[in-house]
Amino acid sequence: MNKKELVSYLDEYLKISDFKDTSKNGLQVDSEKVDIKKIWYAVDANTYIFDKAKEEWVDMVLTHHGIFWWFEQALIGIPYERAKKLIKNDISLYSCHLPLDAHREVWNNIGLTHAFINMFWLQEWEYEIQDFWMYHWVSIWYGIRFKHKVHISNLVTPYAEMMQLTKRLFNFWKKEYITSVAFVSWWALSNVKEAFEKGYDVFVTWEWAHYEMTFAKELWQSILIWGHYETEKIWPKLLAYHLRDKFGIEIVYLDEKY
User: Among 37, 158, 193, 208, which residue's CB has the most CB atoms within a 10 Å radius?
Assistant: First the structure.
């Protein structure tokens, strides 16, 4: 596919202009190639990802975390090495951060939400998806409430195995059964009070600070910590599958954290 047309499609499909973000969303590093036939998709943009991309002879790398953020970054040290590997091997880089967290078809949180729905065998009339938290007046993170209670052990066995996520449940509420879960694929335990006040049985997020966990325990708000990488490796697959099915682009995925 023509690179300019692909980039234009991604910009529009992901609505990157609608978001105020710390990431410089969109095409971050250009290449001489005009035709994009093969895409490597991953969570992070770093040197070892780009080394593998070179071995696979890809035309473009698609990531959630790019190499340029809100501040203008000098191309020295590691940033230089990252850009050099892309330019030297004629590979372009497209990165998208918050627009993917919020997207209604290929976002992280919809993947997490529907994984719960599917695992609990919930029919449409048995659950409700609600807005949980907005960022710069845009709904990005959500919660689900379901009519029939589910044993809390399901959060750390079948679901965790299905999603291949880290099993870290802190059942401060000491509940055996739950009927609601809120999701934030973010460092978001600062929102633990909001989860408590809105009556969610479990709050799912990816990182924590010690003082936040002590506060959660004081509130008796149960927390499920699943890691930054683990909760954000869903969208690259969804977006890549979308591009493959729509444009026939070959896709390759590297599930490599460290």
Answer: 208
